[in-house]
Each structure stands twice: as C-alpha cells, then as structure tokens.
Amino acid sequence: MSLSRSIAASLSPDTRQKLAIEVLAKSQPVSQLAAAHQVSRKFLYEQGQKAKTAMDATFERTSSDDDVLFHLPVTKTWLSQLILGLVLICHSSYRGVVELLRDLFDVSISVGTIHNRLQSAAATASEINQGQDLSGIQVGLHDESFQGSQPVLAGVDAASTYCYLLQGVEHRDGETWGWHLLDVMEQGFQPDFTIADAGAGLRAGQKAVLPDIPCHGDVFHLQQQFETVVNILNRQAAGATSKRLKLEQKLAQAQLKGQNTRSLQGKLNVVHQLEQKLVRLATEVKTLLQWMSHDVLELAGPLLAVRQELFDFIVTELQQRECKAHPQLQTLCKSLHHQRDQVLAFAGLLDQKLAKMALGFDVPLQTVRDVCLLNRKSPTSNPYWERWNQLHAQLSGKFHAVMEAVSAALKQIPRASSLVENLNSRLRDYFFLRRTLGKPYLGLLQFFLNHRCFIRSAVPERVGKSPKQLMTSASHPHWLELLGFQIFRQA
To answer: What is the pTM of this model?
Structure first.
C-alpha cells in the first residue's frame, strides 16, 4: 500500500468531510490540498463527489401528494371498463357504481345503463365460453349451490380450476343435469371420471348422458358430515358435564344448610350416568372418525380391499351405537353405507397406478406401496427418515425415480370436489348482490373467473396464471381485451 493511500485510510470521518467541502468550495487547487494532507488527488475528487451527491439528495425537491402522476383519457369506453372492474373485481353493487362515479368522477349514470353495459359484455363472454374446447379435461368436479331458492349447477376442471358449467336452473333433477351436461359435451367434455357428493339428481343426470363415465364420491362432504356428528356428541357430553357440576354445587350447599338432599342425590346419579354414557359415546365416535380419516380416506393408504374392510368395520361399530336419542348418528350410518364404493373409488385408481409403477421399475409391488405410505409421515420426523433410509437401501439407484413417480401419481388422484366448493364460496360474494341471476350474468362471471390471473394460490404453479391458461397451457390476452377493450397503459 502506498503512503498516500495509507494516510487516506487513516483519516477520520470529520477530516474527510472537511476535505470534501474544501474540494467543492474550490478555495485552493486540488493539487495543493493533496500535497498539504499527503493524499492523492483521486481520493479528494472521490470525497468531493460523495459530498455533492449528498447535497443533491438533500436539496432535491420532494414530490407532493398533489403532483399529477399521469393523465387518464376518460371516455365512454373507458367508463365501461371501470364499470366491469368495479362489479367483477371489487364485487360492487350497481348502486355502489352509481355513487362512485357521481362522487369521484362527477358523472351521472343510471342503474339501467350499468345493467346494459354488463349485458353487452356478457354477450361477448358467452360466445367465448361456448367456443372453448373442453376435451382436455380429465376429471370434472360437479356440485350445486343456491342463490336464495334458485339452484345453480357448477362444474370445474380438477387440474386447472376452469369452470366449464355455471348455470342457474329451476330444478336440480336428473333431467336438468343431463340437459346441461349435453351442452358441455358438445364442447368436447368427456372426462375419465367425475367427483360429486351424493346428490341424486346430479348422479342421475350424468348416468343418463355419460353412462360409461364413473362418478366418484366426494371425501370432503362425508368427512364433514362425520365431523358434524362428533361435534354434536361432544357438545352434548359437555352439556351433561356442566349440568352435573351445577348439581354437585347445589348438593354441597344443601348439605351445608342441613337440608334433605335425597332428591338432589337421585338427580345427580341420573345425570352422572348420562354424562358417562355421552362422554364414552363421543370418545368412541371420535376414534372411529380418526380411523376413517387416517386409515380409510387418506390418499396414501392400504389396498382398496383393506380400506373396504375397515370401512365396513367402522359402519358396523357406528350401527351398534345407534339410538333414537341420536338421529344424526343414524343418518351418518345410512350415508356411509350407501357411499362406500363411490367414496373409495380413488383407492382403486391408486392401486392401478402403483401396480403399473412396479412393472415399469421392475420392483416388488409392496415396496412401491411402502414408498407411497412414506408420504403419510412428516418429513421432519425421525420415523420418516428411518423408513426413508430402509427404502433407499432396498431400491438402491431406483429409489429417487420411484419416489418422484409416486408423488406425481398422488397429485393426479383427486378425492374431493373441494375446488368446486371453493368456486361456490367465491360466487356467494356476487350472489348476495343480486336478487335474480340471469343466464347472461352467470356467463359473465364464468368468463371472468376463467380468464383472470391468480394473484396468490396454495399451488405455486397457479400464481400469475388464469384457469384457462392452466387448462390449455397457452397464454391469452387480458380478459378486458378479450371483451374488445383496450387496456390503459401509462406512457
């Protein structure tokens, strides 16, 4: 290191600041200043530039909240886009749009005009909906929701969340479902299978027009019904416990006062017996629910035949606990008894995929299933890694390939119509604003939900993409551009 650089490095911040000010003030030539302090001219110029940058930043004019950021050409066409954005993106009511345009844009507009603008956009949206090729859908999810008393039939692609059916109807019987399934079949809808709840009309309609396409049962609704029964029993048991504690308190007070406690003691014995009975029943039914969820309905699980045997065992145990005092338990038993084969259909698909993997990798089927069962364990637990090491030793170089194949297979086997349930929950934000749902409005909603991009998603692959883009693997213009508008861009 040279002498000048060594001296420059040892200078204090205050000294550097004074040198920078002298350089900017030009009170003496830089060469003389450098010689006086035994530093290089380059060093002094660097300090001067730092000081100049700091001064520029200090005296730079800060922007005001009233500064014009950009100019927006407001036309009737742009107002139409704003109306669509407020209704579809912001879930605004018609009168909310009227108020916003009045207060922020000083524009007077009627509810009828807003309705006409939406109807015009809906006509274009409906054409786009009907022109979509649906032949790429492998698994369809069907369900029914309601706007007041009006049924709304919904169908969603399990892989992409694309909504291919959204129709308001008067009835939800088999004939109505069959009629609208015929419409989507004209667009190429021919899935490998569908998933739906136990709705009689829904299943009858599909059986009539798609007799060769199986309709699997929905795991979500069955588990939800089971959990509801467990929650009811837990509340009843908690109520009995609370009643017993109150009686014990009354009995203790009566004993302190020297009163006759025979009546209270008799009531307490009855309540105590009821409490024990309810607590035992709630605990046993909860255990059966845990077995059902973990051993029967879990995606990574045993053979279909084993699941069926466990399913029947659970139903039998529930039937042994049926009584008139718990009608919800009787209803659950009937639901489980009638839905077994439909709900466990996913397990048959898994068995087929695992058998195909065993042949493809030339490894024992049980070993492939053991890899599948590894997914039941938490990757952060010791049992997971202990089993991981055992399977790695068994499969050697094939282990990672088998693991990837099993993971891919598990992702390709949906068990529930939860995506269509998610769609229904989003639709409710729009439904509560409308007393009646016309076909054009539902068609516009269907178009919008299919062509808007996901801002966030639990599935990372969906972020920034629309359902249509996910289904077709091809990009498309913005949904407003598809409706014939030109998107505003800042200059």
So the answer is: 0.75
